[in-house]
Amino acid sequence: MKCDRKTLRLYAITDRTWVGKQTLMEQVESALKGGATCIQLREKQLDDSAFLAEAMAMKKLCQEYGVPFIVNDNADSAVKCQANGVHLGPGDLPPQNVRALVGENMMIGVSARTVERAIQAEKAGADYLGVGAVFTTTTKPDAHSVSHDIVKEICKAVSIPVVAIGGISRQNILELSGIGIAGVALVSTIFASEDIEMESRTLRMLSEKIISA
Q1: What is the pLDDT of residue 91?
Q2: Over the stretch 109-161, which tens digit does the pLDDT of each residue have?
Q3: 15, CA 20 to 30 Å: which among 42, 86, 178, 192?
């Protein structure tokens, strides 16, 4: 399926590290109230049954807000919980293989760091790309940076939407103006915030500004 660029404006990726005064589900709802336009569930520690239960509950929550729900890596769970999308990293199955598993109606996102990888991913059936890290990130300290010029080249080289990820905050987001991205993906900037709803609202406003720039 084709991916609506508007649903990628503020792409919130969960991180259980920051669960405290709110549960993960409460944190996600706060992000949705603040204007997150899609939610990606990323879990590394849960077993399959716990992950599926969480995915199904989060999908229902996102559905209530009319926002796409995306599962990280796990295509099988994405199918079982009827997610709107699945996001694939470098070590995951190729998009064409995943398409055979999930069908035509599920979005497939692919991580890319080079123009060549981006073009390959689009040809293989990706609906959108995640490109980064565009800034130094504490979420993935070993992530290699991708220059803004490369992001701009990727945006020009493909016809599918591109989301910038990695170290983005309210302090640096405006530096991404005019490079062609459809939106920004954030983890700790949203979920480590003292006020997730307010932070999401501010970031949504700033993301709209850089897209229209």
Answers
A1: 87
A2: 999 999 999 999 999 999 999 999 999 876 666 567 999 999 999 999 999 99
A3: 178
pLDDT of residue 94: 93
Structural domain of residue 155, as residue ranges? 5-212
Cβ density class 137-166: b for 16+ within 10 Å, e for less:
bebeeeeeebebebbbbbbeebebbbbbbb
Helices marked H in the chain — which ranges?
24-34, 48-64, 75-80, 95-102, 115-123, 148-157, 188-191, 196-212
Give the closest residue to 203 by CA, choosing from 13, 3, 2. 13
CATH number for position 148: 3.20.20.70
Residues with active-site annotation = 42, 111, 140
Can you read off the two tokens belonging to residue 142? 């070993």
User: In total, how many domains does the chain have?
Assistant: 1
Per-residue pLDDT reduced to its tens digit, 11-26: 999 999 999 889 999 9
